[in-house]
Write a structure and sequence with these properties.
By secondary structure, the protein is mostly helical. It has three helices and no strands.
Length: about 80
């Protein structure tokens, strides 16, 4: 799997501990993951794409934990 901008943005989110900076980094990550999802939707079905989509879902789950644990956002999945 090739590295994409969403992976770099995700790494920055995971490494950041300052809540003020996290808000900006989270927005950058969310923008990058949406853009990459749109790119992949045009490819439809390549095996590498499926693996990347699974990695994106996993990253989104980690992001939810970061939002709830580090920023005190309410977990809407409950």
């Amino acid at each position: 799997m090739q590295p994409h901008s969403w992976t770099a943005a995700f790494e920055r989110v995971c490494a950041e501990s300052d809540p003020a900076k996290l808000h900006t980094l989270i927005t950058e990550f969310e923008d990058a993951i949406v853009m990459r999802s749109l790119e992949l939707s045009h490819d439809k079905g390549a095996l590498d794409d499926q693996a990347e989509l699974a990695a994106m879902r996993e990253a989104a789950n980690v992001l939810l934990r970061i939002k709830t644990e580090k920023l005190g956002w309410r977990d809407l999945q409950r």
